[in-house]
Amino acid sequence: MISMEMDNQGTRDRTALTVAAETDLSTRLEFSSQSSRFQSAAILTISNTQILLYLGTGDGTILLLSWNPLNSSPMPSSANANGVGSSNSLNTSDDIVLLGSKNLGPHAIEAICTLQESNKVAALAGSFIFLFDVYLMESVNQLIFTKGASAMAKRMISPNMKISDERVSGFDLAAGLPRKGVSGSELRSGLQRRLSGEPSSWSTGHSFVQKIGVFGRTSKRSLLAPDLAKERMGNAGNKRVRNAQWAVAVGKRLFLCEILSTGTDSKMKEVIRHKQSSMVMNEFGLSGNMKVKELPGIEGVLTMAWLDNSIIVGTVNGYSVISIADGLSTPVFLLPDSSSPPLLKCIPRDAEVLLLVDGVGIVVNGAGQPTAGSLLFKYHPNSVGQSGSYVVVAKHGKLELYHKGTGFRVQSISLATTGHSIIADENGGNFVVVATELKVSCLQQVSIEEQLKELLRKKSYDEAVYLAEECINRGEEEHAKERLAFVHAQAGFLLLFDLQFQKAVDHFLQSEVMQPSEIFPFIMPDPNRWSPLVPRNRYWGLHPPPRPLEEVVENGLSTIQREALLKKAGVATGPFTVGETMLPSSSSRSILLELAIQNIIRYLKASRNKDLAPLMKEGVDTLLMYLYRVLGLTEEMEQLASSENSCVVCRRN
């Protein structure tokens, strides 16, 4: 059973995420033990029809699941007015398929990092980093130099990052080759001393990993690296090639790792096949297409994020930012005693990182400087994710979405299973996965158009406008301004049929797509002289077809009377748009009709200032004169007649 709640106090009422598919692995015998519970998760989008889910368990197993979102049916409109949905309408586990699994040892999988550029996945378990292919088809490689690892993070590039600034100093293909004169025994002894904390015999200021190179011994097979370099340089002129980069915290050190992009994988495999060699990983855990740079770090790192050229780390003492250029660290702020463990989330689309201090989220830039107001959560979450403009927090099977810019809580989703919850999202947050105990829930981002439709159906007009304005402020969508005008027009027609005439015209006046001829059928029924001008644009079809104002008022009052009777009978109904006391009577009809005409006059008068076609001007002026006569506004009729106008004499049917 899944429920979606909307708390109207201090929130904005939206459905930004909806559960599209779920599966429960507790029914499978091999996952029935307590140690099989999920400890980590990651998501990788392969195509529009395949999303791979990686789940790490407490007994050291990586599970690989596949989900086809096109087979799943998001249900933003299936919830009722209270936002409660039923699990019966959800997709079953048939949409989520278990592809395979691999065991990395007896230790829990603490973190998973997808490296899509290289078709690799990294996992942290037992204080080591393990590297494997995305489909778990090949052997798993343990990176020996990461002994003592406590955290890792993939490098995230913000949209404003210059291509020339993405290169990490020290990541040089030539530097990856073995130094002449360094024997394999020297390399092995040096590695053992370094991992044990003993000083190296080499000069300071150079990374040991850079010294040992990509292979542990000198051979003709090391000529593979220049081949890869030439191929990458050849591709660079045609398109932007970005390699997979991630950072690993090991004691007081940081290792920056890079794997050449997938464009070089086929070349590497081809060379390996022809030379009949097995040099994908050497005894040091370094691959022929992998480079590493070492930086000084901070001991006790529990969580980290790599954004552009900065790495922000969190320890029990607080948060610090480390520059990848020189390794210098700068404290961001200290954590209070007895506070919850540090937790952070990288938000690359805004070049920001969210830092958690108990139940408070602080948004900072890559330099650690606050960029926005704090987010106040109800609790310190188990995990943090992102979906568009929203921060997603999870704890014990409950998700909450907060708008990062305003801090408003927009949605709360309760899943059936309680327990430690882990969030995994792709870059951008179109898809979010929540793993709780042994249950997996796949959520899809509801499109802006569907969110707007739902808000308009629920008569949350101001919130719909606010959401449409957000899209403009972000500057991410080409037709955002047109959509805002569309929302104003649709809200205006809904309000018109709700007898909220003043608010309706207020929205009409703010819509750039609204045509004055769309009002004509409310004044003069078809067919008439201007019927060809009336666009057959029903917008999203959320309101009835146009009809004379007399009928609009009559039908609206009948609806109010029906809602009042249902309320007395104890049946929940929507909010009254005019008021319980405005029941059908001759006086209420005349009052509302006069109010409707006054506001339509206001709209037509404003339309006269627009650059209209001659026939459109004719319709506006003639119908305006007609409405003046209906209300007996003689002075206004004389002013219009004495000014330049396009009125025509016609007979109203």
Task: Provide an overview of this structure.
With about 650 residues, the chain is of the alpha+beta class. It is about 25% helix and about 25% strand. It is built from 13 helices and 29 strands. The strands form 6 sheets. An 8-stranded mixed β-sheet has the order 14-13-12-11-15-16-17-18. The longest helix has 22 residues, at about 585-605. It is elongated and about 90 Å long. Mean pLDDT is about 80; it is low at about 1-10, about 75-90, about 170-240 and about 265-280.
Tally of individual helices: 13
Spatial strand order of the main sheet: 14-13-12-11-15-16-17-18
Instruction: Count the beta strands.
Output: 29
Low-confidence stretches: 1-10, 75-92, 172-239, 263-280
Give the termini separation.
Answer: 57 Å
Report the sheet with the most strands, covering strand number, pairing sense and barrel closure.
8 strands, mixed
- The shape is elongated
Helix content range:
25-40%
**Average pLDDT:** 79
Helix/strand/pairing category: alpha+beta
* Cα Rg: 32 Å
Query: Beta-sheet strand percentage?
Result: 25-35%
Question: Which keywords apply here?
Answer:
653 residues, alpha+beta, 8-stranded mixed β-sheet, 5-stranded antiparallel β-sheet, 13 helices, 29 strands, 25% helix, elongated, disordered N terminus
